[in-house]
Write a structure and sequence with these properties.
The complex is a heterodimer of chains A (341) and B (385). Chain A has 341 residues and is mostly helical. Chain A is built from 13 helices and 4 strands. The chains are: A mainly alpha (341), B mainly alpha (385).
C-alpha cells in the first residue's frame, strides 16, 4: 500500500488522536509549570462610623479582583516552574518526616497516600486475578459441555457491569448493616463497622477489582486452553507426569504469553483505578492517583478548579505509566525488528 | 470420542472442580441479583439485616404491595413465553419483513417494536387482568411476596432519570457510530500496510491506551471552559462553549476509544485473507472500492464486536462525563454518583439502588444477546497480541 493511500485511510483516526490525546497531553505538560489566577489589587478602604464626639474610622486593606470591560475578572498566567509539583509532593514535609523518624506521617500527604494505596492495590490484585482466572478456566474446561455456555454468561456479568455500579453492589452488601456484615457479626459475635475502617475498605476495594477483572482473565485463558497440544499432554502422561506436573510444565508454559498479556492489561488498568473510590466513598481513608487528579479538577466550594496542581499530579501519575510500559515497548520493538528480517 | 482412561479424573477432583465453579458463579452473580431484589422493596425491607426479610419483604407486603402465587405463576409463564418467542419467531419475522440489504435496520425496528409490545403486555394488560383474577380466587390471590415498583417510578418520572437516559443514548450512539467509521478505515489501512509508519502509529496508540483519563481531562477542561473566547477569532460571535456539550464529550470519548478500536479492528482485518483484496484490485477496484465493496461485507462480525466494546466504554464512563458535562446534560452513570453522595434517607438509597439496576438492565440484555461476540472480541486481541 502506498503512503498516500495509507494516509487517507489512517488520517481521520490519527487526526482525532492528535487533537484529543496528544495535544491535551502537551498542554497538561505546559500547564503544570504555569499558574492562572485572577488579577487582584489591594485597595485601602477607610470606613467611618458615626460615634460619640467625632467619627470612628477604620482603615483596612482589601483585595479585590480587577474586572475587564465585560465585568468578568481578568486573569494572568505566569510561569512558576516547579511550584505546582512542590505543592503536590510537599517534599519539605517529607524531609521533615524522615528527619524526625516518623515515616508514617508521610502518608498524611495526599499524593504519597494515593501512591502508597495505588501501588499496593495494583500489586496485590495482580496475582489474585491471574490465579482466579486460571482456576476458573481450568474448572470450566473440566465441566460438562452443555453447561459451559451458561457458566460463561454468569461469569461475564461482573466484567460487563458498569464499574461504579459493580462497586456499589458490593458496598451495599457490606456497608451499614448489610447482610454479609450482619452474617459476619453473627458468626464472630462482635460489632463490625466496615465503612469506618480503612483496611476493611481497602480489602473490599481489592475484592471488587478481582471480582471485576477475573472474568476477563478467565475468558482469555479458557481460549488458550483449547489450543493446548494434546500430544504433548499424552507424552507427559506416558513419562509419568502427575496432574500437577502436567499443569506446571505443559499447560502454564503454553499459556505464558496470555498470562503476560493479562498481567500487562491489568497493571495498566489497576494503576488508573478511580471508580472504586467513588463507589465505596473511600476518599476519607483510601485514595488513588487518578482520583487525586479528578478531585483537584472538581470545582471547590468557591468554584475554582486547581488546574495547575491537577496537571502536576497528572504528570506525576504519568511517570508510573511510562515505567510500566518500557519493558512492553522494548519487547514489541524487538519483535518488530525480528519480523522485519 | 470418549476420554482416554489415563486422562480420566478421580471423582474427588471432579467434585472439587464442580463445587469451585458453583461457588464462583454464586459470587459472580450474587451482588447483581441482590441489588435487583433490593430495588423492589420498601426501604425498611431493602436494608434489613435479615436476608429473608429482604427477599419476602414483610413491610412491603404490609403496605399492600405484593404478588400472589397466581401473579407469580402467570407472570413467569408470560415472561418465558416472551423470551422463547424472541428467540424463535422474531428472527423469522425480521427476515421476512425487512427489505433486501436492510437487515440491520430491520433488526433495530423489530427489536424495538418487540420491546414496546412486551412492555405494554407485561406492565399494561397483565396487571389489570391479574387484579380481577386475584380478587376472585381467594387464598391463591392473597399477596405472599412483597414487591413494589414505586422506587423506579420516583427515579424515572419524578427525578427525571429518563432525561439522563436520553443523554446516555445520545452519547453512546454518537460514540459508537463515529468511532466505528473512523476506526474501520484506520484498522484496514494498518492491517494491510507493513510499513514502519503503520508500526509506529500502532505503538503510539498502545501508549495512548495506557494513559489515565484524568490526565487528558486536565488538558481539556481549561480549553473547553474558555472555548468561546479561544474560537471567537475563527468562528466569530457564534463560537460555542464546549464545556457541557454532549457533542464535545462524544468527540473526546471517540478519541480515547480510538487506540483500542484500531488495535481490535486491525486484528479482525488480519483474519481476512489478503488474496481477497488482490482479486478485487486485479478486477480494477481502487483500494477504497475494494475496502467498501469486498472487505466490509465480510467484516460485519468484527465490526459488531468492536462496536459492543465501544458501547461499553461510552456507557460505563464516569470520569470524562462527570467532569465535562453540566447538570442538565448528565448521562446516567454520573447522575447516580450524585444520588448516593446525598445519602440522606434510606428512601434515597433505595432509589439509588433502583437507578443502579436500571443502568445494569441493558447491559444484562447485551450479554444475553451478544455473549459469543464479546468472548470473541476479548480473545481476538489476546491470542494474536
Amino acid at each position: 500500500m502506498k503512503f498516500r493511500t495509507l494516509a487517507w485511510f489512517v488520517g481521520p483516526s490519527v487526526f482525532m488522536m492528535l487533537l484529543f490525546i496528544a495535544f491535551p497531553l502537551a498542554s497538561v505538560f505546559l500547564q503544570s509549570f504555569q499558574i492562572t489566577q485572577p488579577v487582584v489589587e489591594t485597595v485601602e478602604v477607610e470606613t467611618c462610623t458615626p460615634g460619640f464626639l467625632g467619627q470612628t474610622c477604620v482603615t483596612e486593606t482589601k483585595t479585590t479582583p480587577i474586572l475587564d470591560e465585560n465585568g468578568t475578572p481578568q486573569t494572568t498566567t505566569e510561569w512558576v516552574g516547579l511550584l505546582s509539583y512542590a505543592r503536590v509532593l510537599q517534599l519539605d514535609q517529607v524531609g521533615a518526616a524522615i528527619a524526625s523518624g516518623t515515616l508514617g506521617s508521610i502518608l498524611a500527604i495526599d499524593f504519597w497516600k494515593a501512591l502508597r494505596f495505588t501501588l499496593t492495590f495494583t500489586l496485590v490484585t495482580l496475582p489474585l486475578v491471574i490465579g482466579l482466572g486460571l482456576a476458573i478456566a481450568l474448572a470450566v474446561n473440566n465441566a460438562a459441555r452443555s453447561i459451559r455456555g451458561q457458566i460463561i454468561f454468569v461469569s461475564l456479568l461482573p466484567f460487563i457491569i458498569t464499574p461504579v455500579i459493580g462497586a456499589l453492589s458490593i458496598r451495599w452488601l457490606f456497608y451499614g448493616d448489610g447482610i454479609v456484615t450482619a452474617l459476619l457479626e453473627d458468626m464472630l459475635a462482635t460489632d463490625i463497622s466496615v465503612a469506618a475502617n480503612g483496611w476493611a475498605i481497602e480489602l473490599l476495594m481489592m475484592f471488587y477489582r478481582v471480582w471485576h477483572v477475573a472474568p476477563f482473565a478467565f475468558v482469555i485463558f479458557y481460549a488458550g486452553l483449547q489450543t493446548v497440544n494434546q500430544d504433548t499432554l499424552e507424552s507427559a502422561i506416558i513419562d509419568g507426569a502427575s496432574r500437577f506436573e502436567r499443569l506446571r510444565y505443559v499447560v502454564v508454559p503454553h499459556l505464558m504469553p496470555l498470562i503476560i498479556f493479562v498481567a500487562l492489561i491489568h497493571l495498566m488498568d489497576a494503576y488508573r483505578a478511580f471508580e472504586e473510590v467513588v463507589g465505596f466513598s473511600s476518599q476519607a481513608h483510601r485514595i488513588t492517583l487518578q482520583w487525586l487528579t479528578y478531585d483537584l479538577l472538581e470545582p471547590d466550594d468557591a468554584g475554582n478548579r486547581a488546574i495547575s496542581r491537577a496537571s502536576a499530579s497528572a504528570m506525576l501519575t504519568m511517570i508510573g505509566i511510562v515505567i510500566l510500559l518500557i519493558p512492553l515497548l522494548r519487547r514489541t520493538w524487538r519483535d518488530h525488528k525480528g519480523s522485519a528480517h | 470420542m470418549s476420554t482416554p482412561k489415563a486422562l480420566q479424573q478421580p471423582a474427588s477432583l471432579r467434585l472439587a472442580s464442580a463445587s469451585f465453579l458453583a461457588f464462583w458463579c454464586l459470587i459472580a452473580a450474587f451482588p447483581i441479583f441482590w441489588i435487583a431484589v433490593m430495588s423492589f422493596k420498601s426501604p425498611v425491607d431493602a436494608f434489613s439485616a435479615n436476608p429473608l426479610d429482604v427477599i419476602f419483604g414483610p413491610t412491603t407486603r404490609a403496605d399492600g404491595d405484593g404478588l400472589s402465587i397466581l401473579d407469580i405463576v402467570i407472570g413467569l409463564a408470560v415472561l418465558i413465553a416472551a423470551v422463547r418467542l424472541a428467540f424463535t419467531q422474531l428472527p423469522k419475522w425480521v427476515d421476512r419483513l425487512s427489505p433486501q440489504g436492510m437487515t440491520i435496520v430491520g433488526w433495530l425496528v423489530g427489536a424495538g417494536a418487540y420491546a414496546v409490545g412486551f412492555l405494554v403486555v407485561f406492565f399494561g394488560i397483565l396487571p389489570a387482568v391479574l387484579g380481577v383474577l386475584n380478587s376472585v380466587t381467594g387464598p391463591l390471590g392473597a399477596p405472599v411476596l412483597g414487591l413494589t415498583a414505586e422506587h423506579y417510578y420516583s427515579v424515572w418520572i419524578e427525578n427525571g432519570f429518563w432525561r439522563n437516559f436520553q443523554n446516555s443514548l445520545i452519547v453512546t450512539a454518537g460514540v459508537v457510530t463515529i468511532s466505528l467509521t473512523v476506526g474501520t478505515l484506520a484498522g484496514y489501512g494498518l492491517a494491510r500496510s507493513g510499513s514502519n509508519l503503520a508500526f509506529w502509529i500502532l505503538i503510539i496508540a498502545l501508549i495512548f491506551r495506557a494513559l489515565p483519563h484524568s490526565v487528558l481531562v486536565a488538558g481539556y477542561l481549561p480549553v473547553f471552559i474558555n472555548s468561546a473566547e479561544i474560537l471567537r477569532p475563527i468562528l466569530g460571535e457564534n463560537a460555542p462553549t464546549l464545556y457541557g456539550q454532549p457533542l464535545a464529550v462524544i468527540a473526546v470519548l471517540v478519541a480515547i476509544n480510538q487506540p483500542f478500536t484500531i488495535w481490535m479492528l486491525r486484528s479482525f482485518f488480519q483474519n481476512i485473507p489478503n488474496e481477497l483484496d488482490e482479486a478485487a484490485r486485479v478486477d480494477g477496484c481502487t483500494h477504497f472500492q475494494a475496502f467498501r465493496w469486498v472487505i466490509m461485507p465480510v467484516m460485519w462480525p468484527g465490526v459488531i464486536t468492536t462496536g459492543l466494546f465501544s458501547f461499553l466504554l461510552a456507557y460505563n464512563d464516569l470520569l470524562v462525563t462527570s467532569l465535562l458535562l453540566d447538570a442538565q446534560n448528565q448521562t446516567m452513570v454520573p447522575a447516580i454518583a450524585g444520588y448516593f453522595n446525598r445519602e440522606t434517607t434510606t428512601t434515597d438509597q433505595v432509589e439509588a439502588v433502583a437507578a443502579a439496576v436500571s443502568i445494569t438492565a441493558p447491559l444484562f440484555l447485551l450479554v444475553m444477546i451478544f455473549q459469543r461476540q464479546i468472548v470473541s472480541g476479548l480473545t481476538a486481541g489476546a491470542v494474536k497480541g
